[in-house]
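[job 4417] fold queue: 2 targets
>>> target A
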Amino acid sequence: MEWRILMICVQFLSVVSSFGTQRPGKSSLFHPSTQLHAKPNVKLALFSPCKINLFLRIIRKREDGFHDLASLFQAIGFGDTLELTILEGADADEFTCNMEGVPVDQTNLVLRALTLMREKTGNHNTYFYANLIKECPAQAGLGGGSANAATAMFGANELMGNPATLEEMVEWSADLGSDITFFLSRGTAYCTGRGEIMTPIDPPIEASTKLVIVKPNVGLSTPTVFKSLEYDKLSDLDPENLLQQFMEESENVAMVDESAFVNDLEPPAFKNLPELMKLKEDLQKVKGFQHVMMSGSGTSIFCIGTPADAEAFEKQFSYRDDLQVFFAEFIN
């Protein structure tokens, strides 16, 4: 099985050192150096992409309190940037973030990922300065925090001289969260279990599919949504059949039947925020959008396609004070 680091192969990796700025070719991005020595004078700037769930089935509640799910994850060209460098002579990591409200203590997944990499690789005396430039809003259902953790793992591994393999990082990532594993894929993956069991889709779904993300300023926590689940109202569609439908139209997702775009977390989210259902209904009326659905546990709504009347769309949605609108595309 071939694993590739998503956040690196998609957008950019800029390397700033005492010798200037370089942009490595794709071969170096896919195949990091195997030299086992640290790079203390190097600063990495890594793109940390978000994801959407093209379908999300909740299968059952487990005895440990978690839920078994089946979902098709797709990476998109909207996300954050993580700047990372080794701190020489330090005895602790330093972490900063531009977005107000983001924790900068050990509860943040970036710092937890750096700690995990030290523990797993045995580089106990290597500490980092991390600066997270956040674009992805919180409580969006876009996996921003999980992507940041995966990006931190990759960057730390690079700066420490690549002591870990991709397979090892995939295994370790489950210690941090359920869907972090996805961000070590090629861009499209079928995720089961708690979300940590990943089957890469190869070839991935066609890149460059256009979409619009509409995020209300109000958010919902994932536990809040799950607490409102009504198990007798879950979809009974077979996730394997849903996956097959997307694979048959992997070059043009817009052609997938509307019934395959199912998210079992929409009803409980809409129950908590009725205005979210109204937003989805309004977006479904926009000409040019082929499919409209909530991503993850919300509260982002993704719309596949582009609005036929861009000016009218901006007036109705982009100019609203209670919404954030992001234009993106599929990446792999």
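>>> target B
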Amino acid sequence: NLLHLLSKMGDSKRPRSKTQRSPSSNSLKAERQRSQSKAEPQTPDVEPEPEAIENVLPWEIFNKDQITELLSCTPTEMLSKLNTLIPSPNTHVNLKNSIKADLYLLVLHFAQQQHFLEDQAGAIVTLYQHILNMVLEGKELMALVLETSLLLTCQKELKPGMKFNFFNPDQVSKISKYFSMGVFQHFKLYRFSMLQEQDQNIISLEKIVHTCPPQGSFDPPPLAEAISEHDIESYLNASPPESPRSEEEVAGEEGELGTEEQVEQPNPLISMANVQTVLDTVGNDIMDKFTKDMKNKCTEKENQYVNRLNKVKKALD
């Protein structure tokens, strides 16, 4: 028994190895690490702020200097400048481009009446161009109204990060009324005028040259039937005829003259009656030809206008 006790005491005095640790020491170390992690401040992940995008919607169609210049013009001057600024050539021939210039003129005149600033005037021009593009794309009226209302109330962006936030509520109401009385109320007319193909009618390119008929033809040569210069000079140099006298004066003069030779009255080759007859005949011939030509031309023009009106009526129906 004594030897057994001594062996137990010897085992208890042996040094423990470094790798052997009690469970209590491991738990203390884990708690120490947790307390340190709580004490350290946690830095939250900060998202980078998005870069501010410059709103260039007012200058999509015209730049700022052009808008300022247009707002300072009268309607007549503005139209002539629009014809040069809009990339729509041949406004005097192309009906669609001419309509587009007139629509820009009307919307800029509306901006003048409402005393809009340059960015506000440019924004409404950009919005109007967007509406016209939707008409050209064949969109329906309800799509136009919904799109316009969303853009004006800034519920939708025309481009990423760009809204029409240039107007106050009162101006938005006036712009909506302007669009309602214009493009929305006359939507079919706008769509027809901008989508219909234009007819090109060449009125006249003929250069008519009247030449004299060759000699030996049935027609007389030029001035062949005219009065000769000798006849004209004889008529102009002849003395005027005397006024008619009564029979008593003629008998008295014959008694006084007696045997004197009677003076012969000058007899012109052409009398006034013949000249008047010739002039009347020539004038009537010229007037008849002129009347017939004018009547034929008027009839052709009338038929052309009637055909155009019938086409427009069929298209509107």
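[job 4417] complete. Note on B: The chain is about 60% helix and 0% strand.
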